[in-house]
Input
Amino acid sequence: MKAELLLRGGRIFDAFSGQFFLGDLAISSGKIVGFGAEEAERVEDIDGAFVIPGLIDAHVHLESSKLSPREFSRAVLPHGTTTVIADPHEIANVHGLEGIRWMIKATKDLPLRFFFMAPSCVPASPLETPGAILKAQEIKEILSWERVLGLGEVMNFPGVLARDPDLMEKLCLSQGKPIDGHAPGLLGEALWRYVASGPKTDHECTDLQEAQEKLRAGMHILIREGTTARNLKALIPILTPFSFPFVHFCTDDREPETLLSEGHMDDILRKAIKGGVPPEVAIASATIHTARLYGVLGLGALAPGYLADFLLVSNLEEMKVEEVYVAGVKVAEGGKIIVDLPPSPPPPPPSVRINVDSLSFKIPAGKGKARVIGIIPDQVVTEEIWVEPKIEGDEVVSDPERDILKIAVIERHKGTSRIGLGLVHGFGLKEGALASTVAHDSHNLIVVGISEEDMLAAVKELVRCSGGQTVVKNGRPIVTLPLPIGGLMSQEPLSEVYRLSLELRKAAWDLGSRLPDPFMTLSFLALPVIPKLKLTDLGLVDVQQFKIVSLFEGG
Output
């Protein structure tokens, strides 16, 4: 047998027996042809390096990296991630079908393999205004597209339990395909009904008991280790030599700072191994078993006929990735991409449509106490606090002395400039304003600040740069990170996005914020499916009652 490439003398991982063996790896036409060759065009001695399959991220929103698919590939390939299962519901909430088409086009010729799930919940709730609405008919179309594997995370689990007709049709259309779940805290009979309706994975488990009950109910557990949500430490005991075909790893949401300082899938495996998981178990969970879960044939193992996506690792416990191959071609070495990446296609049209001249941040004084969104540091859930607001004349104003600030969410997709106004406690700003077009899940523009002048200046800055994040002081932007792709992603490299992200955080701290990541916190204050009190362009939302409520107790 003749091979194009023969790697000689490696410690090869056998995903089927869970063992390493000393041998050679022969590659031709992008696939593995065997464990030796009589003749090879090129022979490389790898001197006992560990050879493992390329790592697979089971669930990721690459928009959360703020990077284009091209720059995301540049960021994660050197860390050994060769395949991702992406849920593009962030850009779908902004641009609908057009956004998903763009994502598929932008990933087509990249060396990182991108597969997609059809976003099931666009929008996440009827209590906000998204840029698009995806009904069952749109899901049917998306499921027919290339590299779309199944139905994305079914966040609206109350809708599943209530048998919402449109949601049930989406589940019906997806039968026989992978269906991702999203059911935080759901247990008992409600969990059984949810699983029986179709969802078969969950990445929202935060404690071992919840994960064990969901595993027992037949769900695959995706252990999440993102930037904010970090569940690996709590869930490690569920990953055993018995359960590992049903337990996988995902990043879900990783910010630029985490990608640069900690890595990607290599970071998760490194932590799992240090936490006591045998390397063979961790590797199999992140490769062959993830590929089989999502029905991605030919990936996840080093065997004849499989695609030649693999890593050379010098230290297994440290998961030190030395070289990365995709389809038999070395794409990364020494922590850097060594191949040219094709340019990104033109982004979708600008998505920040706001008439700034019509905006007003004035809150008329009402009767009684006011509802205030109470931030809980390092959490996406919030509290409901009742306070006597500061009144000047007949208007409510920000009260930095008590850390009660004005917050606004402005509809930015359809040009209505509709605005929801509220109050928030916990940012700690003493001056200035922060604004972002990253505001899960509908990604309307969200702004918090001391003065209406600074809040308006922040909005104007994000309209000017077609979306992004900014810090404003005395009516002037201090730092801005432009995100022109859907108001979510930059076309700049990771190092530049990282630099500006750090500058944004420092500028917010200089204005008095005491939050570890002010913009991450800000981005979740408009998500009306996570308790307790959130703000959308339609108004203040009591998530537990699932309805718009008045700012004042007197109505």
User: Anything to note?
Assistant: The chain has a mean pLDDT of 95. The chain has two domains: 54-296, 356-549.
